[in-house]
Amino acid sequence: MCTRYISPEDREIEDFWRIDRRKHRPKDWKNLLTVFPLSQATFIRRAREEVDYERELVVGQWGMIPPWSKTHVPTTARGTRLSTVNARTKGMEKSPTYKDAWARGKRCIIPAASFDEPNWETGKNVWWRFRRADGAPWGLAGLWSTWIDKETGEVWDNYTMLTLNADGHPLMGRMHKLDPKLPPDQQDKRSVIPLEAQGFDRWLTCTVEEAKEMLKVPPIELFAARAVDEDDRPAAAPVTPA
Fold it and tell me: pLDDT in tens for each of the 242 residues of the chain?
């Protein structure tokens, strides 16, 4: 599961995804570089108000907010904190948190210059950083929704990053801690789902059945990965009030 990533600069996002900054750039917004759970960051979706297809750059919370949550911090109906920055593709069609966004085609692209994953092969956590081998930014598959605070009327766009089982993958299968309760070939190691440039528009506009075909573990050739040096490590995640 990915719990931190680095976003490209605003101008790079706009240029790479061909987004008209005069029309869709959020006002008075400077994109974060290192993004943690519950951070406000940018994602790309199909512009809802357009008759013809157009991409839209949106600021939202990383961590999907269930419709029953009483605050923007995701919680269960009983008020227990939920982790919703990653959504497992298996079971999301029935998940109370994700099923509506998936069924309604509310898919998004999450721009990332790189993302980090933990590696425990040495017996302790060593963070690895993943960039694209071709130098382009990642376009990671996600879902989005909108939540409205019933007390204030404030509108919160929010999103989650989709993950797929990566058991047996030569690179992504090495990440994360082993579960001693599971056999080696059934660890359910997770991978994000990078989209290729030729598939961006399809992901944002296609049917649910067509979107399922795009949920694939990426080939190892796509990655440029290395252990993160001490100097490269981001600051600790900011504390977000409830």
Answer: 789 999 998 889 999 999 876 655 555 666 668 999 999 999 999 986 555 678 999 999 999 999 999 999 999 888 889 999 999 999 999 999 999 999 999 999 999 999 999 999 999 999 999 999 999 999 999 999 999 999 999 999 999 999 999 998 999 999 998 888 887 777 788 999 999 999 999 999 999 999 999 999 889 999 999 999 755 655 444 433 33
With the C-alpha atoms ordered 175, 208, 160, 5, is the resulting torsion angle positive or negative?
positive
Structure tokens belonging to residue 129: 């950083």
What 3-state class would DSSP assign to 116?
strand
Q: What is the CATH number of domain 5-232?
A: 3.90.1680.10
